[in-house]
Every structure is written in C-alpha cells, then in structure tokens.
Write a structure and sequence with these properties.
By secondary structure, this protein is an all-alpha fold. About 70% of the residues lie in helices and about 0% in strands. It is built from 18 helices and no strands. The radius of gyration is 23 Å and the shape is globular.
Length: about 400
C-alpha cells in the first residue's frame, strides 16, 4: 500500500495514453467542426431548426452549461464556434494544454448542449472525455509543451510572458461573463457536481493556475512537492475514471445487445446496412450482408467482444488481441455505415489501453518519418522528450 500510494502521488501514470486521448479527441472534434462549417448555422446557430428560444427553454429545464445561451446574436455564435475550432487545434498540438483543455471542454459543452438532438454515441464520449482531460497532465509527451519544457531545461527557466497573458485574458473573460449575468454560471448550482457550480469550477481552475505559477517561481521546495503530489493524484484519478468509463461503455452496450431479439438470432447487423442513412456504399453493404453466415458471425462476434472486453484486462495478450479486433470493428463501422466521427471517438477510447511500448515505438516511427521531411530538417527542431517523468519547470498555463 505504501508503494502504491508513493506511485500515484509521485508520478503521473500513462503519459503516452493520455497524450493519445488528448490528440484523438481534439482531432475528432476539430474534424467534426470543420466538416460541419457550411452547416454550422443549421446545427447550432440561433436561426437553426432548433432555434435559440427552444434551446433556452430546454437548458432552463435541464440546467446544462452552454455559452451559446449567453447571447442570441450571430456574432457571438461565430466567436464561440471559432474559439472551439482554435482550442481543439491547439490542444491537439499540445500548446498550453492546461488552458486549452479548459477551453476545449467549454467548446464541446457549449455546442453539444445547445443542440442535444444532433449528436450520437461518439459525441457523448467526447462530452465526457473533455471534462476528464481537464484533470490530466496530457501534455507530458508528444506536445509543444514538452518541447518547450525541454528547451527550458537546457537554457534555464525564463519569464513566461505568454502564460501570464493567457491567464489574465482568461480571468478578464470570466469576470466579464459574470458582470453581464451569464446564464447558469452560478457558484453552487447547475454545475458538474451537486453543490458545485460552473463559476466555482472555472474560478477555482484559474486560481490553481496562479498558485502553481507562484509556487514554481518563488517556493520551489516543499510547497512545489506538495502541489506536484496533488497534481499527480488528480491525473491518476482522472485516468482511472477514463479506463472505467470505457469499460462501462462496452459492458453496457454488450449486455443491452444480449437482450435484443435481433442480436440473439444473429440478424441485427443486416438491418442498419439496408437503411439509406447508413449505406454510403449500397453495393458493398449488399455484398457484405448477402451471406447469412457472415452476418450472423459478425453480429455474434460484436456482442462477444463487447461483453468480454472488461474481463480481458487481466490478461495482457488477450486484451491486446481484442483491442485489435475492436479497432478493426470501428474502422468497418466508419467505412460501411458512414460514421467516421463515432468510430474515431471509440478508437481513441480503445487506444487508452494500448501498451506503452507500442505507443513509444509508434511515436519513434512517426518521428522518423517527420525527420525525413525536407522542411523539418531545415527547421532543425530539437528531439522530443521521451521519458515518463513530468516536465520541469512547469509554467502558469502549460
């Protein structure tokens, strides 16, 4: 127990897995927002089919958070949509991940809670993971933050002007929202947890970032060690919640399928592949479902894989083999049923269980391809940090 406690408070476990979560979900959300750019007004705008007044009545009833309810102006909608795109891109690159993870979460919640009937299961996963990411140290590797930390370690800590400016702008924006009476931005109600409002959460994160910067700069001894321990504990707790969440998703999906008569007789896969909405390639869908044996095998295999997955975590080899099957399954869903965003979200969720050695090898392989590009060679960028140890020194909003 002592060894376990020292580990969860002394190091941030799974830096590569959390980096995959960060990159995967930021890329999926960014891809979705860019794909729907021509249709953004119909989906989330104040003049869409689900108009602003209807959304306001629903938000007042379910008390969900969305910044798009702060104003019904088209300029405000465009600003929030563009901010969601920018925060997704910067989080994917790992630039100031502490700040960008919060902005990414606010962008996801603002869009999805504005039009709750637009999304699917993949959007629900992104919705949850965006909140978990705020508590993780997801920029330890494969990020611009890690590269900046390496340079700071080589040259010595300097003044983090960019971080201070971002912190001040975030505080100014939050104070302005309070002064203008933003909807559902209260201290004790309508928040992510009972008795905890979104105002408390956002101001708390803002103050924690300030405290981290002050301790790093003026008290690098025991106060820094204590804050590091709390940060490691928050990261590891959030990572555990992510792992459990993915297991629950597959377990509940599998057991619900077991209760369905179409899944029991092995014909469930046939029906969605003959709906116009889920048949981007009609000829391919017809060929795939023309064999009753193949349809039944894939139907039963889907249920077996989903039900069995949480139990395979106790055996590394079986778990890795099942992960490969699940990733192939989601790639097939993306191609055959025309659900790329759902599949990307679920593949990213699966990737959190990938072995660290595999992720390191994949990172080296991608880095080797990158280094062979002429533009990258001319830039002479420094090598990426590959250790599991948390970057030091930390910055205000890194």
């Amino acid at each position: 127990m002592t060894s376990g406690l020292a580990r969860v408070t002394g190091t941030s476990i799974g830096p590569y897995q959390t980096a995959v979560i960060r990159i995967g979900y930021a890329f999926t959300w960014l891809f979705f927002l860019l794909r729907e750019w021509p249709h953004r007004h119909e989906l989330y705008g104040p003049g869409g089919t689900w108009n602003w007044e209807m959304a306001r009545r629903l938000v007042d009833d379910n008390h969900s958070f969305t910044a798009l309810m702060w104003s019904d102006g088209n300029l405000w909608f465009e600003a929030v949509y563009c901010l969601a795109i920018a925060s997704s891109a910067l989080l994917m690159l790992g630039w100031r991940t502490r700040t960008m993870s919060v902005l990414f979460m606010l962008g996801v919640l603002s869009m999805q809670n504005r039009s709750v009937f637009v999304g699917d299961g993949g959007d629900n996963v992104i919705h949850l993971m965006s909140m978990y990411l705020v508590l993780t140290r997801c920029g330890q590797v494969w990020s611009l933050d890690a590269r900046r930390a390496r340079r700071a370690g080589e040259r010595g800590p300097g003044r983090d002007t960019t971080g201070v400016v971002l912190w001040l702008l975030a505080g100014l924006a939050l104070a302005t929202a309070h002064l203008l009476g933003a909807v559902h931005l209260s201290w004790t109600a309508n928040g992510p947890l009972p008795g905890l409002g979104w105002a408390t959460v956002l101001w708390g994160l803002w103050l924690v970032h300030a405290a981290w910067w002050v301790v790093r700069r003026y008290a690098p001894g025991e106060p820094r060690t204590v804050l590091d321990a709390f940060a490691h504990l928050a990261h590891n707790s959030a990572l555990l919640v992510i792992l459990v969440q993915v297991c629950l998703i597959y377990a509940t999906a599998g057991w619900y399928k077991v209760q369905g008569s179409r899944w029991q007789d092995g014909t469930a896969l046939f029906y969605p592949m003959h709906l116009d909405y889920f048949t981007p390639w009609p000829a391919l869908s017809d060929a795939f479902t023309s064999s009753g044996i193949i349809t039944m095998a894939v139907t039963y295999g889907t249920v077996i894989v989903q039900v069995a997955f949480p139990f395979t975590l106790f055996n590394r080899r079986i778990k890795n083999a099942l992960l490969a099957l699940m990733i192939v399954e989601h790639l097939s869903i993306a191609f055959l049923l025309g659900l790329p965003f759902f599949s990307l979200a679920m593949i990213t969720a699966d990737a959190v269980f990938l072995p660290t050695n595999f992720l390191r090898a994949a990172g080296r392989r991608i880095g080797g391809v990158r280094d062979r590009l002429p533009a990258v060679r001319r830039a002479a960028l420094p090598a990426q940090r590959t250790g599991d140890k948390e970057a030091s020194p930390r910055t205000l909003v890194s």
